[in-house]
């Protein structure tokens, strides 16, 4: 049996695959190794993985995750997986961008992106990632992501630029303190990227408001301006992406892509089912 996992910064989707039995899907927290260490991930897995999965004879694990950008970061996650599934003989940990490319494109070449809590993008040749323009994370980049939309909303709120009725609704929903308390939450407390991304949900809940539509459009325009348009011959590629932000705001995303001369291909909320099909079709991968 084998486990397939696609881990974002907020949630991780899993599937247990075994011959002669239907796939078993479940979810846990997301484990970005820039914010989690091995003991914390292992403890979360012990709490979150269903007992039937923990007790299954898992021989191989294929984990794709956000923040897995180096061998050292991969080792953080791999160590926790080996603790949670000591019987597994094979533990492969790769970046979530490879999962997106495999889910969206299979064995075909093309452009693939992630638009979720964070962002990422690449060119893929059908087997491997050939070019990446770095997203640089929530503090320097991640244009088009949940954190970037949330950052715009929160910044406008703190500077008194949010329309009054939306400011009142945001304060009622989030119970924010003064500026110093918000900055402390961002700079001194765990998982600041999730905190910022939570305000993207507010934009989605109030998307009928022109302000929220404009904020989402600004974030997507920045994603294309800073990232997408710097790939060679980008207008000859179809725009494919996975992620909750791209999926929920897919109409606005398609509008911005069209203005940049890109056709839209697949936009998936989550890649896990397509990723499972990929692994079912490839022996030893």
From TrEMBL:
Keywords: Kinase, Transferase. InterPro entries: ATPase_NBD (IPR043129), Euk-type_GlcNAc_Kinase (IPR052519). GO terms for molecular function: kinase activity. It comes from the Bacteria. This is N-acetylglucosamine kinase.
């Amino acid at each position: 049996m084998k486990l397939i996992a696609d881990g974002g910064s907020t949630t991780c989707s899993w599937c247990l695959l075994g011959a002669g039995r239907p796939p078993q899907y479940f979810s846990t927290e997301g484990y970005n190794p820039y914010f989690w260490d091995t003991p914390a991930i292992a403890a979360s897995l012990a709490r979150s993985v269903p007992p039937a999965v923990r007790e299954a004879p898992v021989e191989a694990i294929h984990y794709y995750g956000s923040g897995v950008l180096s061998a050292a970061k991969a080792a953080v996650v791999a160590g926790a997986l080996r603790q949670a599934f000591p019987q597994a003989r094979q533990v492969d940990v790769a970046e979530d961008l490879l999962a997106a490319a495999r889910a969206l494109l299979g064995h075909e070449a093309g452009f693939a992106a992630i638009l979720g809590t964070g962002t990422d993008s690449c060119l893929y040749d059908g087997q491997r990632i050939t070019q990446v323009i770095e997203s640089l994370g929530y503090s320097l980049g991640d244009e088009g992501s949940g954190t970037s939309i949330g950052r715009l909303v929160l910044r406008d709120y703190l500077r008194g630029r949010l329309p009054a009725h939306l400011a009142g609704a945001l304060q009622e929903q989030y119970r924010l303190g003064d500026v110093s308390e918000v900055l402390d939450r961002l700079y001194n407390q765990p998982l600041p990227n999730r905190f910022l991304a939570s305000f993207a949900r507010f934009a989605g809940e109030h998307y009928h408001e022109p302000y929220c539509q404009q904020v989402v459009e600004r974030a997507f325009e920045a994603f294309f301006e800073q990232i997408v348009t710097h790939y060679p011959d980008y207008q000859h590629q179809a725009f494919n992406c996975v992620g909750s932000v791209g999926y929920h705001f897919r109409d606005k995303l398609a509008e911005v892509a069209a203005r940049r001369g890109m056709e839209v291909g697949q936009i998936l909320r989550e890649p896990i089912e397509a990723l499972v099909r990929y692994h079912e079709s490839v022996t030893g991968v």
